Amino acid sequence: MSSLFLILFLLSHSLCVFVTSAGKVDDSPTLLWPLPAKFTFGNKTLSVDPALSLVVGGSGGGSGILKLGFDRYREIIFENSHGFLALNRLRGKRQSYDINKLRIVVQSSNEDLQLGVDESYTLFVAKKDGKSVVGEATIEANTVYGALRALETFSQLCTFDYGSKSVQVYKAPWYIKDSPRFQYRGLLIDTSRHYLPIEVIKQIIQSMSYAKLNVLHWHVIDREAFPLEVPSYPKLWNGAYTKWERYTVEDAIEIVNFAKTRGVNVMAEVDVPGHAASWGIGYPDLWPSPSCKEPLDVSKELSLDVISGILTDMRKIFPFELFHLGGDEVDTTCWSTTQHVKQWLEERNMTTKDAYQYFVVKAQEVAISKNWSPVNWEETFDTFPTKLNPKTVVHNWLGSGVCPKAVAKGFRCIFSNQGVWYLDHLDVPWNVTYNAEPLEGITDISQQKLVIGGEVCMWGEKADTSDVQQTIWPRAAAAAERLWSRREATSGGKNNATALHRLLYFRCLLNRRGVQAAPVTNFYARSPPTWSGSCYDQ
Question: N or C: which end of the chain has fewer CB within 10 A?
Fold first, then answer.
């Protein structure tokens, strides 16, 4: 099967058009998001059996994650078909369909979900008519996570036809060979500025899988609130807004497990030494003084002991190999104006800048001792690049030009330029988000490989359960395609015009799946429609 597919692609190209039997070129855009790496299509329409069955193969074919994924996508694909199918059964009618089975072959039984897991897949959709050697819808993947990505693509090929009341695949036969451009494709959520209920976080994770995003960066605590249970220091979550706005250890484990079944890693963040005023509500000794509450008191061993306790407890929850330690926006005024901290610094002949470095490096050592690679916001790299552990992943946010500098010094980098990929910036239009390029300014191939990907950030000061999804979507999808699809297929004016058409369609697909994605082209993101009209024209 794979050999046949390679031969087909040698005879085609990644963004093909189809020449019909009448000799006319069908250049209508392919309504898939994100755009696959390579694909060919035809001019046939196939019907899909609402009783579509799963046939598995390979060492990983028996995966529980795969079975859950198939059941989930079958519900999505046949959402409008249940009543029609039941009525036909009641009448004793039996229809004939072109596609009755979905065969999924997963080569590996390893379900470990880490950075760089193989998400590649091939997808074949063709009618069994005696001429096709494929004969059925078939997915081949090396891992179950590649199979999940293929299921998403297959679901987007399936369209409910209201005339025939059946699910159909247009432009068949389809041959798709796909894999992501970047291994890290992230979305940050912020549950300190506004608490998000567990079900809302799950809805966000589910919607991430539709756009093939694969890392949820959970900025769980900050100066405003500390909602997470930490058994080693049980008073820390006294810093939650209320006793009802908290996450137990079991809640966090449930979120991580839910995400794994969607192929999404969860990277937690504990932002130190700044952004930590809420910690002192439960443990006031962590404050330099009652009137000067952050950064954490660098002069006390308690501060690093608490960090060690938090990370020890979190390591039991978050298996992902990256852990975010923050390190941004550290105003050290409290250290230089609080007498006992000032004396501690003088005794060690340290400046406040030295103390900032000392704290970040110590926190990194704690994370590394627990088999994590530390991620830090770019200020740490800007301030003391030679002191950071070589395992550090530099997280860009302030502006352009950071990743080129970081990778030139051998560090890995995550792109999140606030001017283009901060979703709380409501005046950034979709095309600016779409055209942002993580490898801008990096021409050396070995350095390009150090940019592990990018992340859109949904900071929560002005977003909560009432509007978080329509602030995330559809602009997060624009970044998702940049991170998944080939650069040459998503760059340039013509590709932008095609992308807009597809993004309008994808936004409506999200709406049909219950995701409150806002109109694409409104001046301010998440604003409602300006007048009556079709979802596909907003």
Answer: N
